[in-house]
Design brief:
167 residues; alpha/beta; 26% helix; HAD domain-containing protein
Length: 167
């Protein structure tokens, strides 16, 4: 059985530049990377998940990629402003907790334009919100997926506060 690698993916600032027409112009570039990694699965973390059904969101992807979109993270409502930092990562860990046997060994990364959403920066492919997912991001995502495939992925850096480890 192939072990899956999960890509937690934002939309605005990733699939298209933030604040511009929502045309998903960068999505084909992301899909090109995903096609080279049969084990890669996409989990939607975008706020769009609260506005549209999962089937509508999956419909944005190319037909051959749609079966590899395996869900969307749950929506956690923060109790205060301090809980906003790392919120998407907490949501991603909740999703992993519901779908994989051991989240501490799960292969996952995030593609997002907002670094504050993710405390585990070593697993983040940070896009430029003004341009969306580009060539450098594709290289970074491939490097991440290659490390998962080869088993050489480094655990989160010790100075990072990770939700994979209990403090």
């Amino acid at each position: 059985m192939t072990r899956h690698s999960y890509i937690f993916m934002d939309f605005d600032g990733v699939t298209h530049p933030w604040g511009e027409v929502e045309d998903f112009r960068c999505l084909p570039h992301i899909e090109a990377v995903v096609r080279d990694y049969e084990e890669a699965r996409i989990v939607i973390t975008s706020d769009w998940r609260m506005l549209f059904s999962l089937s509508k969101l999956v419909g944005r992807f190319a037909e051959d990629i749609r079966p590899r979109v395996c869900g969307a993270t749950p929506h956690v409502i923060p109790k205060n402003g301090a809980e906003l930092h790392g919120l998407r990562e907490r949501e991603a860990m909740l999703w992993l907790g519901q779908h994989v046997p051991d989240i501490s060994t799960a292969s996952w990364c995030a593609v997002d334009d907002a670094p504050g959403n993710w405390m585990t920066r070593s697993r983040l492919v940070l896009t430029d919100f003004k341009r969306g997912f580009g060539d450098d991001d594709a290289v970074a995502l491939r490097r991440m997926l290659d490390s998962f495939r080869s088993g050489t992925a480094l655990p989160p850096k010790s100075r990072e506060r990770s939700f994979l480890r209990r403090a």
